[in-house]
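INPUT
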Amino acid sequence: AQTVTQSQPEMSVQEAETVTLSCTYDTSESDYYLFWYKQPPSRQMILVIRQEAYKQQNATENRFSVNFQKAAKSFSLKISDSQLGDAAMYFCAYRSALLIQGAQKLVFGQGTRLTINP
Amino acid sequence: DSGVTQTPKHLITATGQRVTLRCSPRSGDLSVYWYQQSLDQGLQFLIQYYNGEERAKGNILERFSAQQFPDLHSELNLSSLELGDSALYFCASSVLGGSEQYFGPGTRLTVT
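OUTPUT
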């Protein structure tokens, strides 16, 4: 079974600075997807960024980028120019690329609470 | 707004009772997933439906059941509720094989 580990329960950063959230995962599969979801105080789960394992290029969405190290099974999220609205819980998630039954579920890490200091 | 709707937003009920949570997926999405978010267990997959058929089960208790109707909306039924069932229940939807799942706003269940 796949597992996802976020070793930083809490992180804080000064507004306008850059912060990196860590995520490692364990899988025997070669093709899969990795995601970062943001959960602000409203509790809504918002998809921040997606990475396909077969792509070597790291995904980027505006101020959000990832560092995907497939061999090391590492998937970190970098937030540049941090803004107050970035304060939230961030969850790393894994999804198999297989289309067999049961493979499409998301497996989540425990989350990292990010605080932005003004 | 993800396009996934869930009702009710909040539910407070007593132990031993039964509740039904409702989810409407995004237009065009045939797959519906249910997840439970609790303080001690984190976010866990419960069950998946695709076009009315159960497709996968996760850590779903026998006291819980779900179904997906012909109009593709889904309901999660929780019975014989216990204090430990208090949690945030999310519904998500996707196209089958689609990598991204879009989450609804969740239903917060409090069992007293």
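end of record. The two ends of chain B are 31 Å apart (CA to CA).
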